[in-house]
Amino acid sequence: MTEKAIFYHAGCRVCVDAEQAVADAIDPARYDVESVHLGEAPDRVAEAEAAGVQSVPALVLGGLPYHINFGASLDALK
C-alpha cells in the first residue's frame, strides 16, 4: 500500500526544479505523489495552509510539511 504525499508549488523555476528532484527521489512503490500547482488550483491554497505549508515549493509527507528552498509564501498566492 502506498502512502499519499502532496507536492505543492507555484510553477516557478525553483518549484519546477524541486518537483523534478522530488520525483527522482521518492520511491513510487512507497509513495503516491500528487503535484498541485497552486496557481492553477487556487482553491487548494487553504488545504495547503491547513497542512502547515507556509511557502512553496513544499512536500507534505506523512502529514508533515517539508519546505524546499523558498519560492513564494502562500500569502502571495491568495
Summarize the structure.
The protein is of the alpha+beta class. The chain is built from 3 helices and 4 strands, in the order E-H-E-H-E-E-H.
Walk me through the structure:
With 78 residues, the chain is α+β, with helices and mostly antiparallel strands. The protein has one domain: 3-Layer(aba) Sandwich (Glutaredoxin), CATH 3.40.30. β3 and β4 form a beta hairpin. The model has no long low-confidence stretch (mean pLDDT 90).
Please write out the topology.
Layout: E1 3-9, H1 13-25, E2 31-37, H2 45-50, E3 55-61, E4 64-73, H3 74-77
Parallel strand pairs: 1-2
Antiparallel strand pairs: 1-3, 3-4
InterPro entries: Thioredoxin-like_sf
Protein name: Glutaredoxin
Organism: Sphingopyxis panaciterrulae
In percent, how much strand structure appears in the residues?
A: 35-45%
Helix content: 25-40%
Number of domains: 1
Summed over residues and divided by their number, the pLDDT gives a mean of 90
Report how far the terminal alpha carbons are from each other: 34 Å
Structural class: alpha+beta
- Rounded radius of gyration (Å): 11 Å
Number of DSSP helical runs: 3
CATH topology: Glutaredoxin
Report the order of strands and helices.
EHEHEEH
Largest sheet: 4 strands, mixed
Name given to the CATH homologous superfamily? Glutaredoxin
Which residues sit in consecutive blocks of at least 5 with pLDDT less than 50? Answer: none
What is the CATH architecture assignment? Answer: 3-Layer(aba) Sandwich
Question: Which key phrases capture this entry?
Answer:
78 residues, alpha+beta, Glutaredoxin, 3 helices, globular
